[in-house]
């Protein structure tokens, strides 16, 4: 294994005292394309949000390259679940993508020609170039998802977390997105994706984490993506 990107230790998370994640241990190595799968309510989104410091755990610890999230945030990209972001201010698609070049403070800075070129290139990759001047709140959920993906791409992070990036996108776009994710992986980036469709797991991913409040199994597709583990995750 070529070094760890993320280390999750003894993580327990609760909403209003009701635990939704129990004692989760998870190591994510560099350069993998990993799915997190599990039934509705298994805690997949909660796990990602806790890793990214958006939810405080009851117990346990998350480190990125052996440091807390806030020390490494520039190297960490996040594409939230569709519909989870409310755009109550007017901003166009290209601006949303260019925000990825700077993070929040960068609003004040003028984007350079290079920032703009990279952002247009990313929009082209996700098939959204034609929408560059549209208001973000006038797009469908699936289109917004692709814009967020473009924003994550221009951020040039080392590790990416994506919460159901295929939700509400058509098959052609899904295939295009997975090609982008595989290319990131091939460049040595680490990509973690909450995913719903078990059928496509072996084709899309090289590792999988099966989650249902606890980690049922985590590892390579070959080692852990088998009937026994799937059955204990989905209780079927
Ligand atoms: N903000 C919240 N307040 C209270 N309970 C919550 C909150 N968010 C999630 N939950 C509960 O925590 C559990 C885990 O939710 P989570 O969204 O992490 O699951 P998930 O595996 O991502 O589900 P899905 O596949 O349906 O998106 C669920 O029982 C859910 O109802």
Automatic annotation (TrEMBL):
Keyword Nucleotide-binding: yes
Homology family: Belongs to the ABC transporter superfamily.
CDD domains: ABC_Metallic_Cations
Annotated InterPro entries: AAA+_ATPase, ABC_transporter-like_ATP-bd, ABC_transporter-like_CS, Metal_Ion_Import_ABC, P-loop_NTPase
A family per Pfam: ABC_tran
GO molecular function, one term: ATP binding
Organism, as annotated: Natranaerovirga hydrolytica
Domain ABC transporter, first and last residues per copy: 6-236
Protein name: Manganese/zinc/iron transport system ATP-binding protein
This protein's UniProt keywords: ATP-binding, Nucleotide-binding, Transport
């Amino acid at each position: 294994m070529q070094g760890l990107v993320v280390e999750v230790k003894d993580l327990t998370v609760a909403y209003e005292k009701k635990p939704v994640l129990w004692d989760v241990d998870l190591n994510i190595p560099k350069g993998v394309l990993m799915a997190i799968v599990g039934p509705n309510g298994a805690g997949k989104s909660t796990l990602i949000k806790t890793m990214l410091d958006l939810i405080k755990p009851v117990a346990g610890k998350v480190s990125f390259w052996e440091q807390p999230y806030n020390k490494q945030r520039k190297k960490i990209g996040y594409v939230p679940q569709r519909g989870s972001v409310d755009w109550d201010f007017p901003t166009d698609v290209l601006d949303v993508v260019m925000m990825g070049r700077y993070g929040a403070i960068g609003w004040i800075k003028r984007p350079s020609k290079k920032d703009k070129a990279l952002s247009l290139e990313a929009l082209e990759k996700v098939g959204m170039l034609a929408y560059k001047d549209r208001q973000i709140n006038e797009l469908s959920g699936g289109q917004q998802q692709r814009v967020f993906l473009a924003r994550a791409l221009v951020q040039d992070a080392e590790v990416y977390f994506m919460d159901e990036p295929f939700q509400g996108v058509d098959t052609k776009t899904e295939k295009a997105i997975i090609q982008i994710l595989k290319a990131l992986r091939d460049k040595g980036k680490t990509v973690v994706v909450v995913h719903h469709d078990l059928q496509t797991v072996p084709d899309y991913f090289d590792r999988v984490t099966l989650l249902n409040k606890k980690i049922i199994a985590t590892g390579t597709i070959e080692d852990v993506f088998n009937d026994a583990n799937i059955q204990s995750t989905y209780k079927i």
